[in-house]
UniProtKB/TrEMBL annotation:
This is TonB-dependent receptor plug domain-containing protein.
């Protein structure tokens, strides 16, 4: 049993926290219930995806890599409101971890950065972002992006791609099977040795050395053809490549019995044809099959029964299907999958485009404004913007927020240039994505999971850091003070029975922050407790991507060596000197924080020194202008009066109103960081004092320094705060190095106003044209993905 201590004879050190503890304790209990509810809900196959927008793809050693991550509910396609923990990891080509961090997700959004420092050398690296919960699933719900780092101290090797005549071409049947004596549609995909699609290849399909079909692939090396395979016939293809004719065998493995799923569509409907051959019809007549597919996120099941026709056609209105990937699966009476076909529905695709834009100069910066349709809901949204010179070669992405959310997680194979299918959408793009889906074969969806009830998930759904505090010396009654963190109030836990341990939930320690716990000993004095503490999570889990292939954008290989060699050594030296400036700046962070706190106050803020902490609260404030204060030993409470109004003053401790003046009687200041006095503040209310407010802010670190009454416990991992992005400085803003590889700015968090305006402000550095790479999402799941070139003149 856990309850608030009822003893009213506490020392003043404990009294000062009781009220705030009461509120915090209520929140702590609620958090335990919330954690239980969330975990129960996530057991119902809750899934999420993540896309991380990186500010560039090619970096010079010494630069910062900035990113914004979007965690999205896989079912609703809206920002995930459950997730709080996001892991970000950079690995080398051998999957060795170079750097890793934990970030806090709020309303589905997290942002941060990595300094590409001495741990990096010239090479290709992977950037991975994921949650612990994603590790339970086979689909690629996580994000993996590739970047290139160039080290000025290591000579660049010639990484340019060397073309050769090696070609991998595959012929894949429309629903996973070649069925004899019926027309089969096949997807055709041609790749080079590095996995890139070979564009615009033409060829012919031969049956027993006779041409029966011709085909043409698109700029991503993908296309389709159709023919009727026959058992015992030999099929091959002749491809025209680099002026040569190359012959490839088509391994049909034709089956004599089976059922195919064939799709076609109009502007309003999709036609799902279930087709078989005469040899199969007699064996399956009047047997029950079911066509299963999504209908607005819900699973729909249509009964299928073949009678006298070899083809059954189902017409489905596109408005009745969910936008994005729809998976049509034919199953038998035993729920065994027979055939599968993926279909991408562009109808209702929630992509936001702006209606107009404007640009104007604001002092030494440019302000670019974009106007969106204000009929949309912009109450909560986030937009990340990478701003680079127009000629940049350093932004090469294989995906955007739309393809990563709506396409990649549903496929087993690799998608080259996934963003292609969502830029300037037209009939050709819809045709191309359908060809892509045919070449993917079966989806990443595991039909067996549907039939597996109460599947136990190995990796838990995390909400902050949970803490188990083990008590080695068990007592009949014990009381503990959990000191506050930077983003969480402290609380008191009281046990009126023997306990071996207790748990704390949803803690978010920032930037190597520590946990502080005190035991309330005899005569209610604070003493250092003997405890053994366990943390969950206590390390960054590894994302194993060894079973998947990832395509590195081709432009990352083709880097101009001479161009970079002429300039980047100066760039690195320049940024090294700026690192010294940062050290100097960091020494002033304390002064800046003090100044910020003082500026935010409407009263007077007094930061205490060691001399101040030797007095009591009453003595300290009694010497301040306009205040009469003393400790009343008759009543056991503090008296504080506004002299001008002859009215009592209210007190707040760490943000909570102190209801009982006895809590602050003879109150020691050894753990107080500052006291904010505002005699015009009436927020204390009539019941507690209309003579103004005194706000007291404590710091447990001061407690550690001044008295051994607290146990300092180190979190094995903490959350990394999103620091201001460091924009590199360059000697020359007009040379080719800056135009190709320089950074103008990175803005990780921006908001569209409720009336539909997005304002982007940045320093231009005398560029006539700049490129803005924009990614984002609104609270109701509308995507923004745009590349915009701005004429600054």
């Amino acid at each position: 049993m856990i309850e608030i201590l009822p003893n009213k004879k506490f020392t003043v050190t404990l009294y000062c926290l009781i009220f705030s503890i009461f509120l915090s304790f209520g929140q702590s209990s609620a958090n335990q219930n919330i954690d239980s509810i969330i975990y129960k809900n996530t057991q119902q196959n809750y899934k999420e995806t993540v896309y991380s927008h990186l500010n560039k793809s090619i970096y010079i050693k010494g630069e910062e890599m900035g990113f914004t991550s979007y965690v999205i509910n896989k079912k609703t396609k809206k920002p995930s409101l459950l997730t709080t923990n996001l892991y970000a990891v950079i690995t080398d080509k051998d999957d060795t971890v170079i750097k890793e961090k934990l970030f806090k997700v709020e309303n589905g959004i997290a942002s941060g950065s990595f300094l590409l420092d001495s741990l990096f050398t010239t090479g290709i690296y992977k950037v991975k972002t994921y949650t612990n919960w994603m590790l339970n699933f086979k689909e690629q719900n996580y994000f993996v992006g590739t970047i290139k780092v160039i080290d000025s101290n290591k000579p660049l090797k010639n990484n340019n791609i060397i073309e050769n005549d090696e070609i991998d071409i595959q012929f894949l049947p429309e629903s996973g099977t070649f069925l004899s004596n019926i027309n089969n549609t096949i997807g055709i995909i041609a790749k080079d040795t590095l996995g890139y699609g070979i564009p615009n290849i033409s060829g012919e399909i031969l049956e027993n050395n006779s041409v029966i079909r011709k085909f043409q692939l698109n700029n991503l090396g993908i296309g389709r053809a159709s023919f009727t395979p026959k058992k015992g016939s030999f099929y091959s293809a002749i491809i025209n490549f680099n002026g040569k004719k190359i012959t490839k065998t088509i391994n049909t493995h034709t089956k004599e019995k089976g059922i195919l799923i064939k799709l076609s569509k109009t502007k309003k409907e999709v036609f799902v044809a279930l087709a078989t051959n005469k040899n199969t019809l007699s064996k399956i007549k009047k047997k029950n099959y079911f066509l299963v597919f999504q209908n607005k996120g819900e699973l729909n099941k249509l009964k299928i029964q073949f009678q006298n026709n070899t083809t059954i056609i189902q017409r489905i209105n596109l408005n009745d299907l969910a936008y994005g990937i729809n998976i049509f699966t034919l199953i038998d009476e035993m729920n065994n999958p027979i055939a599968e076909r993926m279909f991408f529905n562009y109808k209702g695709l929630p992509i936001l485009n702006f209606n107009q834009s404007s640009i104007k100069k604001v002092k030494d910066s440019l302000k670019v404004s974009f106007k969106f349709d204000n009929k949309n809901n912009f109450k909560n949204n986030n937009i990340s913007v990478s701003i680079l010179p127009k000629e940049t070669k350093s932004y090469n992405k294989n995906s955007n927020i739309i393809s990563q959310t709506l396409l990649t997680p549903y496929l087993k194979g690799v998608v080259e240039n996934g963003s292609y299918y969502f830029k300037n959408i037209n009939n050709q793009k819809e045709y191309d994505i359908d060809n892509l889906l045919i070449t993917q074969g079966w989806s990443s969806f595991d039909w067996k999971e549907v039939r597996t009830e109460n599947k136990k998930q190995i990796h838990q759904f995390e909400k902050g850091i949970s803490i188990k505090v083990n008590i080695p010396n068990i007592e009949k009654e014990s009381h503990y003070l959990i000191h506050h963190l930077s983003n969480r109030n402290g609380n008191i836990l009281s046990f009126q029975e023997e306990v071996k341990s207790f748990q704390l939930y949803s803690y978010f320690p920032m930037d190597n922050e520590n946990l502080f716990i005190s035991k309330i000993g005899k005569k209610n004095k604070l003493v250092e407790p003997s405890l053994y503490v366990q943390y969950f999570p206590n390390h960054i889990p590894k994302l194993n991507t060894s079973t998947r292939k990832f395509l590195i954008p081709k432009n990352l290989y083709n880097t101009s060596e001479k161009e970079i060699e002429n300039y980047y050594p100066n760039f690195y030296a320049l940024n090294s000197s700026n690192t010294l400036d940062e050290v100097i700046i960091k020494t002033n962070l304390k002064e800046q924080r003090i100044e910020k706190i003082k500026n935010q106050s409407m009263g007077r803020v007094h930061f205490l020194n060691d001399f101040d902490r030797n007095s009591t609260l009453a003595n300290f404030i009694g010497f301040k202008p306009g205040i009469f204060a003393y400790d009343d030993f008759n009543t056991g409470e503090i008296v504080a009066i506004n002299r001008a109004q002859n009215s009592p003053i209210a007190f707040f401790l760490d943000g909570f109103l102190v209801p009982d003046k006895r809590m602050l009687f003879y109150y020691n200041l050894y753990d107080v960081e500052y006291i904010d006095i505002n005699l015009r503040d009436m927020s204390g209310g009539l019941a507690y004092g209309t003579g103004g407010v005194i706000r007291i802010k404590t710091d447990p670190l001061l407690n550690v320094k001044n008295k051994k009454t607290v146990r300092k416990l180190k979190f094995p991992i903490t959350f990394s705060s999103a620091k201001k992005f460091y924009v590199p400085k360059y000697k020359n803003y007009q040379n080719s190095f800056y135009k190709n590889y320089g950074v103008i700015d990175w803005l990780p968090k921006n908001k569209i106003t409720e009336d539909g305006i997005l304002n982007v402000v940045f320093k231009n550095n005398k560029q006539n044209y700049v490129s803005l790479f924009v990614e984002g999402i609104t609270t109701d799941g509308k995507f923004i993905s745009k590349e915009i070139t701005v004429d600054t003149e």
